[in-house]
Amino acid sequence: MKGIGVSPGIAVGKAILHKNKETEIYKKEIKDIEKEIEKLKNALSESKDQIKELYEKTKNEVGEDEAEIFRAHMMILDDPEIFGKAEKKIYEMKVNAEWALKEVSNMFVEIFRNMDNEYMRERAADIIDVTGRVINNLMGSKSGNLFIPEEGGIIVAKDLTPSDTAQMDKEKILGLITEEGGKTSHSAIMARSLEIPAVVGTGKEIESIRSGDILAFDGDEGTIHINPAQETLRSCMDKKEDYETLKNKLKSFIGKKSRTKDGYEVEISANIGTPDDMDSVLKHDAEGIGLYRTEFLYMDRDTLPTEDEQFEAYKKVAEKMEGKPVIIRTLDVGGDKDLPYLNLPNEENPFLGYRAIRICLDQTDIFKTQLRAIVRASAYGDIKLMFPMISGMEELKKAKKILKTVKEELVNEHIYFNENMKVGMMIEIPSAAIMSDIFAKEVDFFSIGTNDLIQYTTAVDRGNKDIAHLYNKFHPAVLRLIKIVVENGHKEGIQVGMCGESAGDPDMIPLLIGMGLDELSMSPVTILKARQIISELKMKEMEKKAQQAANCFM
What we know:
Elements (H helix, E strand, L loop, with lengths): L3 E4 L2 E9 L14 H29 L2 H14 L2 H14 L3 H17 L4 H5 L1 H16 L13 E5 L4 H5 L6 E6 L7 H9 L3 E3 L13 E5 L5 E3 L3 H22 L15 E6 L5 H6 L5 E5 L13 H15 L4 E4 L27 H6 L1 H14 L5 E5 L5 H20 L10 E5 L2 H5 L1 H4 L5 E4 L1 H9 L17 H16 L3 E4 L10 H7 L3 E4 L4 H9 L3 H13 L3
Parallel strand pairs: 2-3, 3-4, 4-5, 8-9, 8-15, 9-10, 10-11, 11-12, 12-13, 13-14, 14-15
Antiparallel strand pairs: 1-5, 2-6, 6-7
């Protein structure tokens, strides 16, 4: 059986089936509308008390950042779009509260599940969790904790809600397998935070698993063995032992420099989406934040975040990094990241269309609000600002001009900030890479975004499975562009980093070292592995290999 590996590690154990009890809800005509509304309000109040308890439990047992999901659930409970519509349905149709709420919930779940953005699709699970809790309270039914035997086991479920995971005995969970979900689903996020191996998105094949079956899987590969033969089981156990040995070995790299055998130092930084990621960043000893994807502050909500909301998020990260660099990328939406409340146009080629800096330079009120928040936060740490999707000099100069205006406004308002904050740009479009000698004179640093650079250079839609084999990070044209950017940046004395997926690829790291990159930014969980790889390399040897790779023919 195959799924999506979302949390590394080897899991071997008995299957524990977790089935969410589906409560039958029937439509009933009611006579006392006010009584039914009061019933809904009482259920909402009871749900709030329960979620507060879950928040405290998760904060104490897992961590404050992981507990933040329940703050989001409190916001859903206060959302008039959901519960206001349920009240309206009760009034207009004279129906029971649980049926009205279920109908409204189904409508919103369908809307979220049909969104193009994976992160937004996964938020449907939060609506199901919250409205399900209110419906249970309306009907007087309670959900109990899942029983896990002393020897532990592997949880097998259709999906796991935040409430499910908060109430489980995590010391006994050997692994997680779910039918639904993706890399940004709550199950995946919690599994990575707790370092529990997990595979999600298996589809209906999961129904072949029976309670008590012996399961073995690799949380990286996503392949699940059901009641494996002794030889396969032995191989998995050996792999599990090797993995635990490697994990302990990697811990020895905490606090060390990311340095080759012959003394070449690279800065290993982390990519993050929200302040919630900081526990993992600190745990894995990142030397900085190489990419703060600010678009996540704009998602899973109905309106734009305020300047103060953004300021607090950026400030929190800067303070937690205690003087280490934090590169904040300005809003990068469009393409595969939609914000429904912005009413972005439907485009035939969204990746080539109205997105990222193009939106910001067009809707300058949104851009200025974000720039104000970033600049204000620069007073609390080593914050650097980075513009995405720059294709030509006109865009860069216009963005810098708006930034200058924002700084002047803050000076006039007597708001302190770091006047020497560094400003950089992403190199993710071939035109920017080719013109990097010119751009290097205008910015303080480059960060290469390989995800888009590869797809634009090779003309391959990275989301199209039919041509996925052509999406090749080792394509000589891609390698040559990276090398050009590094050389041009260094000629002007600026730092050149990389924040795309390639930066954390074990097979790619030796070539990137050989090309002379100053910084590699990646998922926090891959940092120590990258540091280990770098410690075993010699810069002089890697320079030759990088040159050979760029000159080979496909």
